[in-house]
Amino acid sequence: MNFEEINSVKALLSKPQKIVIVPHKNPDGDAIGSTLGLWHFLKNMGQDASVIVPNDYPRFLKWMPGNEDIINFERKNSEAKERISQATLIFTLDFNHLGRIGQMQSELESADATFIMIDHHQEPADYAQITYSDVSMSSTCEMVYTFIEKLGGVQAITSEIANCLYAGIMTDTGSFKFASTTSRTHRVIADLIDKGAENTKIHHQIYDTNTPARLHLLGCALKNMVILEKFRTAYITLSQEELDAHEYKKGDTEGFVNYGLTLDGIIFAVIFIENKEEGIIKISFRSVGDFSVNEFARKHFQGGGHDNAAGGKSDVSIAETTKFFESLLPNYTDKLWI
Ligand SMILES: [Mn+2]
């Protein structure tokens, strides 16, 4: 964000606005943390603001302060539509293409508001009047901190804001271990703790509130893991039947894909999850090092994301999808071969 853009944001926020803040569909910790963190900040400034999510999100994110005020577009459709149509300012957080918000896409496209994008994914679209895009950032939450800092508002970061932003940075960095974690990330985290982020409590609420059914589902996923040592690749499949048998709830498979990378020598991990309702296989890709899963997902699986973490989908069965996936690997021997 340059000086001019900061000044235009300051000018916008110096007047009363009707603000809507939107994260991507199937919001994760960074999406919920960043939208709620920004929401508290704007509300404390006296702005009329609301967070509208395209659909539901996992139980382990629902402790965040402000959660009760989030409007779910699927559940409170008319209220959400009204707020979007009346909005003068719309923030889109943790995504950069309006195709990432599902049913809400057409509402936002027809909205008569100024758009501000804050996001750290690659290849941003150009729908926003102000685009704050930085792919070097660990998380959108780190960007919201920086955004607030640029507005001269760091002193206005309350413990509510600190808790929300901490949660998003923690989840998007895999608890501060991914390559995107910088010394700057740790400085931001340190300041958030100083401002009241309850780090131990946040870790517990996100990572240590499993149900027995979820642990059994993890067991099933790990049993299904296929290890292709030759390609330094490991993948997991979960069918709809297996999900149903373990009382699957949204968010239950969060983090499963990363187990492949805990194997010595494995640098590419994938999970294929069947979704009968949507008629697709949802795919998550993770890598360590130079192998870009963003490129891989974009090229072969209608997706994208970051160099080391991306998503995609497939419209054929799990068996056909994994067969196709395995057939691609020999094309990447320069990156994957031992
Ligand atoms: Mn993110």
TrEMBL record:
GO terms for molecular function: nucleic acid binding. Signal peptide: none annotated. It holds the Pfam family DHH. Gene3D superfamilies: 3.10.310.30, inorganic pyrophosphatase (n-terminal core) (3.90.1640.10). Transmembrane segments: none annotated. Residues 18-169 form the DDH domain. Residues 249-315 form the DHHA1 domain. It comes from the Bacteria. InterPro entries: DDH_dom, DHH_sf, DHHA1_dom, Oligoribo/pAp-PDE_c-di-AMP_PDE. This is Phosphoesterase RecJ domain-containing protein. It comes from Kriegella aquimaris.
